[in-house]
Write a structure and sequence with these properties.
It is an enzyme of class 3 (hydrolase). Its EC number is 3.-.-.-. With 317 residues, the protein is of the alpha/beta class. It has two domains: 214 residues, Alpha-Beta Barrel (TIM Barrel), CATH 3.20.20.370; 66 residues. α10 links the parallel β10 and β11. It is globular, with a radius of gyration of 20 Å.
């Protein structure tokens, strides 16, 4: 008889992309199917996020409870993840960035990756565009990766306008153009989002309007990011939206209180910890899953861990 669930822990899994691209955000469809099979083999009870949140609050979550979540709203959530989830009859929550509803969208971090992957870049990136005191060399793959990391770093705390201006400048410098929305690495369209939400067991949740680092912004911006995202999704789907994922897993007390005022009943962060009856429903920790992870071992470890109380002081670093 298993005893690893005696603490009443639950595990909320966090994925991003289900694709064969081999990037850090990707788990291949074959590996995702294997993960779903592990959940079945381990006797996990896969629940909708809202149902699990309510059960945790009551203190009666079923042993070995799991919820599955996917962030950002990539097209492969619909084309790859959803069919596999339906094959196993598992529910899931997909967190959507609503700024992408305005047209064919490429997330800013994907645009940056495309720029630095371009084979015909100049030999160096000038200091002004890099935001550094000296130009950044780009001769080797290692130098390109270092330059990519340097350029990416300030984007997290920037406003949408600052991001757009820097992206436009980098595209012009590289000779590339903005994405036209025809490629596979893009956000879902409104029609695709409605299609996904209509599938049995599939729920769409909010991931803010612009995927901002909430603790870096003033309260009015936090409130707008949360409320506007929820309102736009509800208008699109014709139903109430009660689930939220904080971008980058980052939150502060203002963000949590703003989420509560915006009407969210469950909100997830990161942390690689189990959720339990001690978890605040608006600060639910998740376990990030990446390619190559031993999900079976991680589940057993998380179910056996001592439960931890919620906290409001997690900041992005």
């Amino acid at each position: 008889m298993r005893t690893d669930s005696s603490h009443g822990n639950a595990v909320i899994l966090m994925y991003h992309r289900i694709a064969d691209d081999g990037t850090e955000l990707c788990v291949s469809p074959a590996e995702f199917r294997a993960h779903l099979a592990v959940l079945r083999e381990e006797g996990c009870r896969v629940l909708p996020l809202q149902e699990l949140t309510q059960a945790l609050a009551r203190g009666d979550a079923p042993p070995r409870s799991v919820a599955i979540t996917l962030d950002d709203g990539y097209l492969d959530a619909l084309t790859e993840a959803a069919p596999l989830l339906r094959e196993f009859e598992y529910p899931a929550t997909f967190f959507i960035i609503t700024a992408t509803l305005d047209g064919p969208a490429e997330f800013w971090w994907e645009t940056l990756q495309r720029v630095f992957d371009h084979p015909a870049l100049p030999a160096e990136l000038d200091a002004e565009l890099a935001g550094t005191q000296a130009p950044l060399p780009l001769d080797t793959p290692e130098q390109r990766r270092a330059a990519f990391d340097t350029v990416r770093r300030p984007f997290y705390a920037w406003t949408p306008q600052q991001r757009r201006e820097r992206i436009a400048a980098l595209l012009a410098w590289s000779g590339l153009t903005a994405a036209d929305g025809t490629g596979p690495v893009r956000a879902m369209t409104p029609e695709e989002l409605r299609h996904l939400d209509a599938m049995p067991g599939m729920e769409l949740g909010a991931h803010t309007e612009n995927h901002l680092l909430l603790p870096a912004h003033a309260l009015p911006i936090k409130e707008q990011e949360l409320l506007l995202c929820r309102q736009r999704l509800e208008a699109l789907l014709g139903r109430e939206v009660r689930s939220l994922s904080y971008p980058y897993g980052a939150f502060d007390e203002e963000s949590v209180r703003a989420a509560q005022r915006a009407g969210f009943a469950a909100a997830v962060t990161t942390g690689n910890q189990p959720a339990s009856a001690h978890s605040h429903p608006l600060v639910l920790p998740r376990c990030a899953v990446q390619a190559g992870d031993d999900l079976r071992a991680r589940l057993r470890e998380l179910f056996a861990a001592a439960p931890q109380a919620h906290h409001y002081d997690r900041s992005f670093a």
